[in-house]
Specification:
Number of domains: 1
CATH architecture: 3-Layer(aba) Sandwich
CATH class: Alpha Beta
CATH superfamily: ATP synthase, F1 complex, gamma subunit
Distance between the termini: 46 Å
Helix content: 55-70%
Number of strands: 5
Number of helices: 7
Strand order of the largest sheet: 3-2-1-4-5
Amino acid sequence: MQTLESLKRKIGNAEDVQSVVGAMKVLAIVSIRQFEKSLASLNDYHRTVELGLQTVMQNRPPGMPEILASSKPATNGMVCAVVFGSEQGLSGQFNERISAFALEQLDQLDIATENRSFLVLGDHVSYRLKALHQPVEKRFPIHGSVKQMKKTIQSLFLYFDEMRQKERCGPIFLFHHKSLSGAHHEPRMTRLFPLDAALFYEMGKKPWPARSLPTFTMDWEPLLRSLIREYLRVTLERSFVESLVSENTSRLLAMQVAESNVADFLDVLTHEFNEQRQSEITAEILDIVAGMEAVEKAEYSSLL
């Protein structure tokens, strides 16, 4: 049986864990709100870029340059898989699910391990992929603010450019979690490069959502190139933010489960502490009563 002192120590440790779990919950909630707000802005901007592309494609000149067709990956380039994981732990099966999903999708595309090049965001997913003997070429940090996130996005694009100059840039796929209704999320794959030419041509066929038709004054080709750059940037940034929202949602759920488990453990310890304390008090009272009875018996015997 445990002593009261050891039970008291365990109760104190459990209360410390409960405080940490509470702080992690608050941090996760604040992060979710921050990144959800950023995601809403990115969705609006993505819609604006799509409308710009729709305008340009509807007004493309005859015999337009094959800009979209020319954006082909290098034939000898590696298939680049960008996997969005987490920098911190305590996020449930977040990293395990996205790692397994990425490998499953690459296997379905029949891409051999030696032809894969993983660019990962976050230490935990990097450890997971290395444990599965996957070629992790470079790791990028994940920061807790939108401003720092944009720096990571910029670093990614610079690395893509470097790979293209070395003719090592094959197809680029993004693997990330996407938030669904409530607290649920699921892994997704997005092809970032090469561009889907059919998608852009379909944009040009859509009816304009207002009466006034838009126009532009700058040259068609540089405008299209500029919009394509923005389209790629906002696609990558949205994937990143969706992953961050999902990560913090997963962490919040994990902390809620941990909070419930710690509360149950505290109840058990407190109940055991109170029972043992009551037993010791009862034993002390019985000893006192027995002592008093012995004293009274001794005094009565001396009187006789």
